[in-house]
Amino acid sequence: MEPIIGNDAALGADDLIVDTTTQTFARDVIEASRDVPVIVDFWAPWCGPCKQLTPVLENAVRAARGAVKLVKMNIDDHPAVAQQLRIQSIPAVYAFRNGQPVDGFMGALPESQIKAFIARLAGDVGPSPAEELIEIGREAREAGDLSQAAQAFAQAAQEEPGNPAAVAGLARCYIEAGDLDRAKQTLALVRPDARNDPEIAAAEAALSLAEKAGDLGDVGELQAKVEANPKDHQARFDLALALNARGDKEGALDQLLISIEYDRNWNDQAARKQLVEFFDAYGPKDEATLSGRRRLSSILFS
Q1: Residue range 53-76, pLDDT digits in tens
Q2: What is the pLDDT of residue 12?
Q3: Cβ-defined contacts of 149-153 (< 8 Å, 24+)
Q4: In the chain, which stretches have pLDDT less than 70?
Q5: CATH code of the domain occupying 216-300
Q6: Is there a common fold for 129-210 and 216-300?
Q7: Which stretches are TPR repeats (predicted)?
Q8: Predicted pLDDT at 13
Q9: pLDDT at res. 128
Q10: pTM for this structure?
Q11: What does the alpha-carbon distance between residue 99 and residue 123 come to, in Å, rounded to a whole number?
Q12: Which of 5, 17, 47, 149 is catalytic?
């Protein structure tokens, strides 16, 4: 597959996001909010949480496709409005409608809560183009069409550069195609505020597993070793990695769980730690993760 992510795609009209001053606040916020809800982000250059929040706000506003606008105000340069609103800490976000503040929050909220905040203001605007492409990519990947999936995820990343679901999806396509170097390069493109996103974490875990599985040898040989000596923990561990690389999740989990039943402390609890990495790669809602966690708990607490 070709490296088809672009980093300079347009995300939306520039007038959705503007900087304001004390002199232009009435025009940019009060008057503008009579036509469309306006979100005001009060920030300062020295504020670390502000630097985390603002990019997430910008992406969410662009995704709303004109249903809301974002106005940013540097309170170091323009303190008057923040003083009038009695803002005592930043980041502080206020939403205006019809010239009046109607909602707001303090601090750097996670992306999901910011989207919910915007949804309350904007109503149901439907999925964004990036979200639609991500869903197409997921369906294609589940159907085994990696080429179509990669194309959809890459287009989503062009719509919203650094979108964690798009980046993770494309990286997964490269992993499943065996192009681990390109998968690693793709994961590096996630936007900074989303580096801990669950989908990114799952893709990174899948990449780590793929790298470990590279030199394990033949599955049949590993199975023969385990059958010859059921307590050969290293062979069983390697067999679990090899089975997982072939897509046999249940088989991989079985081998590690058996190892834990024999000796949970082998190699500094390597089997349990590897199970956790499997769970991370599969995702918290995957049936293999759910059943694997139940079985692990049963063993550990029996």
Answers
A1: 998 899 889 888 888 999 999 999
A2: 37
A3: 149/173, 150/1, 150/4, 150/174, 151/4
A4: 1-14, 124-126
A5: 1.25.40.10
A6: yes
A7: 130-163
A8: 42
A9: 77
A10: 0.60
A11: 18
A12: 47
Amino acid identity of residue 51, one-letter, is: K
Residues 67, 118: Cα–Cα separation, whole Å: 9
What are the residues facing 41 on neighbouring strands? 72, 93
**14-122 CATH pick, 3.30.479.30, 3.30.70.260, 3.90.25.10, 3.40.30.10:** 3.40.30.10
- Tell me the three state secondary structure of residue 69: strand
Q: What is the pLDDT of residue 84?
A: 94
Distance of alpha carbon 160 from alpha carbon 129, whole angstroms: 9
Given this model, what pLDDT does residue 11 score? 31
> Would you call 173 a catalytic residue per the annotation?
no
Quick one: pLDDT at residue 270? 96
pLDDT for res 167: 96
In angstroms, the CA 62 to CA 12 distance is 6
Q: Which two tokens stand for residue 162?
A: 């650094």
29 and 96 Cβ atoms separated by less than 8 Å: yes
Tokens 């307590």, located at residue: 231
The domain 129-210 having CATH identifier 1.25.40.10: the answer here is yes
- In the chain, what are the domain boundaries? 14-122, 129-210, 216-300
> Of 38, 50, 87, 206, which one is the catalytic site residue?
50
Task: Name the residue with tokens 């003083």.
Answer: 83
Peptide bond into 91 cis (omega under 30): yes
